[in-house]
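Below is just one:
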Amino acid sequence: TVARCLLAPGEPVRVEGGAMIAHSADVQLQAKAEGGVMAGLKRSVLGGGSFFVTTYTAPPQGGWVDVAGMLPGDTVTIDVTPDRPFFLRKGSWIANSQGVQIDTQWGGMANLFGGEGGFGFRASGQGEALVSIYGAVDIIDLEAGEQVTIDTGHVVAYDLAIQFRMRRAVQGRTIQSMKSGEGWVFDFVGPGRVL
């Protein structure tokens, strides 16, 4: 899947290293360790991203930048607002608009033991973030009190205000969980969005 980032005159977009496919004429680019050397190291070592982030800036007539994830699969836009930040799965972030900040974040013990390595990205601010995942993305909007159970290895992103807990997929004995082929799952409770 390819996402085309349409840019107004002079508008920048931040893109994960290696995610750009093509761009329109006269788009300028600058790569740097966004937030400094330590932030670049955290992003690459802990968050699964690249050390450098490239900023593409449109010329006076505007332009576009096409981006895609490294593996075949869906690319989805997440609307980020100051009151609705998101946790993004390790390695899923590919681009964001100027008003969104992407920082490495500890996802908690649930993500560590859920197979995601514990760290991911926090998307905060105002604007859009693009995520890509191997396979298809299903967007689930939960109403207050509504619950969904999702295998930990299939969670792409979630609203940071949503409530969740991690548990074994099969209640009871560990041997039953192993026999089922399912290890750990997240129980999410709305309100909120899970991808």
About this structure: The radius of gyration is 18 Å. Residues 25 and 63 are 7 Å apart (CA to CA). Confidence is low (pLDDT under 50) at residues 43-48, 109-115. DSSP finds three helices and 18 strands in the chain.
